[in-house]
Amino acid sequence: MSDEVPLDGEPADTHEAIMMATFSALRKHGYPGISIQRIADESELTKSTFYHHFDGKDDILLSFVRYMREYFERGYRIESTGDPVGDLRAFVTVSLGEYPGPDGTPNPEARLSTYLELRAQAIQNPAFRSEFTELSAALVRNLTDIIETGVGQGVFTVNDPAATAEYLVATIEGINLQQTTRTDGPRTMLQESLERYIRTEVLAEDVSF
Amino acid sequence: MSDEVPLDGEPADTHEAIMMATFSALRKHGYPGISIQRIADESELTKSTFYHHFDGKDDILLSFVRYMREYFERGYRIESTGDPVGDLRAFVTVSLGEYPGPDGTPNPEARLSTYLELRAQAIQNPAFRSEFTELSAALVRNLTDIIETGVGQGVFTVNDPAATAEYLVATIEGINLQQTTRTDGPRTMLQESLERYIRTEVLAEDVSF
Predict the structure, then answer these.
(1) What are the extents of the domains in chain B?
(2) Do B173 and A169 touch (CB under 8 A)?
(3) In a designed cystine with A128, which of A108, A122, A176, B172 is the match (CB 3.0 to 4.6 A)?
(4) Residues of chain B contacting residue A117, judged by C-beta atoms under 8 Å apart
(5) CB proximity A78 to B under 8 Å
(6) ipTM over 0.90
(7) CA distance A5 to A13
(8) Closest approach of chain B CAs to the CA of A125, in angstroms?
């Protein structure tokens, strides 16, 4: 899979082509309207190529959830700075969908919307639930590492890095849920409150964010 | 509409019967599998009664979103104490779905799951988005009132009650999203972090929660 053209540009291989077609089809039709035919329609591949690679619609969508997770991790790697304060900022920026992709990349709202629409399938569908449990654990582990590094360096004052990471991830996903399900776009206001929380509850006293 | 038997017991009228059938059908089939026939199957009403009251499936579901909002407000009224600290606790308890209903009432997880599954429709469907924008505004207004009362009485120290209310609502919905889309049930841990936030960022120094 290419490291350079996630969700846009020329697909590096058939798997990436299928993932990009899945994203386009989800944007056009939403989860309730998705079908293998409609995913195939967004690509230059035939329907039988899809059946050759996947067991069915949900199998493709579950693979797409893993693809989104890699996409997030790639965005985070590009934005991260190596110091824990910068890495925390990068984590927040990328989690709020604000990672600026190259021209032609889906906008942040499109990425977050698709992510949350699939996440909502986890409410009823055990396979999605299992996939999002793993995805959440990976995000929390990633953020816990950043916080532990910062505590070790004395730039963060946090008693329980794992609990703080869980809470931050939940809050960020709550902000994204508000942003993608309301017409009044509350993200800027919510992001300011989140940053205030980070300054008062995470950072050591003389550290700026 | 009865004030006593929300989402369970004997429906007070046809509208309530339709709402209760909608809830059952959503629990059984999820949004993608919902149809008027399947809603009718959960009631003693005929399909034509549904068409007499509603324009179609989405019209019933939008009405159900308003019903859930009334259900929340009823739960909050029952739990609220009249003092701002108790009211804040009641708001958090009810928002996390922990309002204990009478026997036969759907469990908290079932209520939250249905709420979030419908909320996810707002990502793609403008009518749902408009409905959830109003619902969110009502929740935030309600919580802002509680915080302003607490600030007035000197039990809360908050500079911007509306921003704090927005942030708390987003965080609570993020906690509910984690709880309903993961298998590892992180609510207890997240709720403790939320209560710590309220103690350090909302309550005046000598006030307990």
Answers:
(1) 14-202
(2) no
(3) A122
(4) 120, 123-124
(5) no
(6) yes
(7) 12
(8) 9
CATH of B14-202, one of 3.90.950.20, 3.40.630.30, 1.10.3720.10, 1.10.357.10: 1.10.357.10
Residue pLDDT, tens place only, B28-73: 998 888 999 999 999 999 999 999 999 999 999 999 999 999 988 8
A138 part of contact set with chain B, CB < 8 Å: no
Least confident range from A24-33, B50-59, B70-79: namely B70-79
Q: Kindly determine whether residue A186 and residue B166, on different chains, have CB atoms separated by under 8 Å.
A: yes
Q: Is the Cβ of B167 closer than 8 Å to some Cβ of chain A?
A: yes
pLDDT in the model for residue B97: 86
Q: Does residue B149 sit at the A interface (CB-CB below 8 Å)?
A: no
Closest residue, chain A, to B118 (C-alpha):
A120
| Nearest Cα to Cα of residue A198 among A105, A66, A96 | A96
pLDDT of residue B100: 66
CB A117, CB B120: distance < 8 Å? yes
b/e string for A94-122 if b means 16 or more Cβ within 10 A?
bbbbebebeeebbebebbbbbbbbbbbbb
